[in-house]
Design a protein that fits this description.
This protein has 271 residues and is of the alpha/beta class. The chain folds into 2 domains: 187 residues, P-loop containing nucleotide triphosphate hydrolases (Rossmann fold, 3-Layer(aba) Sandwich); 72 residues, no CATH class. It is 30% helix and 28% strand. The longest helix is centred in the last third of the chain and has 16 residues. It binds adenosine-5'-diphosphate and magnesium ion (MG).
Length: 271
C-alpha cells in the first residue's frame, strides 16, 4: 500500500488514476440525508471492504456507483470521465456489475437460462429467431464446471435447486463472464453456511487477483479484514475511516463501527 498526494491509500503498483472516483457526494431521500460529503477513490485490482452499521449508507453509495440513483450533490467519475447521466445501462456498458443478495436470478428458470438472462443467444432458422439452447447449455455447463459448483448440478435444472452459496457463486461467475472491470457485492454472504461464505470470499480474492476492482459491502469487519486490501467505514452517511487493511486491526475497526468514530484515531471531519 502507498499513500498518494491526495492522502488516500491505494495498492502498491496500481495505476495512479482511480477507476472510480467519488467526490463530495451527498444524497438525500426527501428530507433525510443518507450520504454527506463522501469522497472515495477505487482502483483497479484492489478489494475494498465497504463497512458500516445497518443504515450507514453503504447500499445507497453503491446504488449511486451502479447508476441506479443520481447523487443530490457531488461528482462521480469512471475512468476519468464524469458521469452525468445515471442509468444502470450506463454502468453495465462501463463494465460494472452489482451483485445483490435478494435479486438477480429467476427461480423458475433453468441454470442455463439464468446464465444468459437478458442477453439470450439466438439462432435464426429461415430468418426467425430461436433460443440457441445448445449454446446456452454448453456455455453454462462450462461456467458451472469452472467455478467449482457440484458435479451434480445440471444446467437444465431450475436454479431454485441450488443452495444459497451456489446461487451466489453462480451470480459471481455470470458477472465475471459478461463484465470485466468492477464487481460490487452487497452483503454477499448473508444467510450462507460457513463453507459457502469461504467460497464466496475466495472468489472475491481471485477476482481482484485477475485485475478487477472488487467492492465488497458487509457489516462483518472480521470477515472482510481477512481478505480486503483497504477498509472504508461509513457512519451515518459519512466516511469516517479509509485505511489499508494492515494499518488497523479488525478489533480497532470494529470499535469504530460499534462506538462511532469518536474512538477513532482519525477525527471525523467537522463541517
Ligand atoms: N428509498 C429510500 N427512501 C428513504 N430512505 C431510504 C431509502 N433507502 C435507504 N434509506 C435510508 O437511508 C439510510 C441508509 O440506507 P442504506 O444505504 O440502505 O444503508 P446500509 O446499506 O448501510 O444499511 C437508512 O437510514 C435508510 O433507512
Ligand atoms: Mg445495505
Amino acid at each position: 500500500m502507498i499513500t498518494g498526494s491526495d492522502g488516500q491509500s491505494r495498492p502498491a503498483g496500481s495505476p495512479k488514476k482511480p477507476l472510480i472516483s467519488i467526490k463530495n457526494v451527498g444524497l438525500s431521500y426527501g428530507n433525510f440525508q443518507a450520504l454527506t460529503d463522501v469522497s472515495v477513490d477505487f482502483y483497479q485490482g484492489e478489494l475494498v471492504g465497504l463497512v458500516g452499521d445497518n443504515g450507514a449508507g453503504k447500499t445507497t453509495l453503491i446504488r449511486i456507483i451502479s447508476g441506479i440513483i443520481p447523487p443530490t450533490s457531488g461528482e462521480v467519475y469512471f475512468d476519468g470521465e464524469r458521469i452525468i447521466k445515471f442509468h444502470p445501462k450506463k454502468a453495465i456498458d462501463l463494465g460494472l456489475e452489482c451483485i445483490q443478495q435478494a435479486i438477480g436470478l429467476c427461480d423458475n428458470l433453468s441454470v442455463g437460462r439464468n446464465y444468459f438472462l437478458g442477453r439470450e443467444p439466438v439462432r435464426r432458422i429461415l430468418g426467425l429467431p430461436f433460443l440457441d439452447k445448445k449454446k446456452i447449455r454448453e456455455a453454462s455447463a462450462k461456467v458451472v464446471h469452472d467455478f467449482g459448483l457440484r458435479d451434480s448440478v445440471d444446467v437444465d435444472d431450475e436454479i431454485a435447486l441450488l443452495s444459497g452459496g451456489e446461487k451466489q457463486t453462480f451470480k459471481i461467475a455470470r458477472a465475471v463472464t459478461f463484465r470485466n472491470r468492477v464487481i460490487i457485492m452487497d452483503e454477499p454472504t448473508n444467510h450462507l453456511s460457513v463453507r459457502e461464505r469461504t467460497r464466496v470470499n475466495e472468489l472475491a480474492v481471485q477476482l481482484k487477483q485477475q485485475g478487477l476492482l472488487v467492492i465488497y459491502i458487509t457489516h462483518d469487519i472480521f470477515q472482510i479484514h481477512r481478505i480486503a486490501d483497504r477498509i472504508v467505514i461509513l457512519e451515518n452517511g459519512r466516511k469516517v475511516t479509509d485505511v489499508p487493511r494492515d494499518a488497523m486491526s479488525a478489533e480497532a475497526l470494529e470499535g469504530i463501527i460499534r462506538d462511532g468514530s469518536r474512538t477513532s484515531t482519525k477525527e471525523p471531519k467537522v463541517s
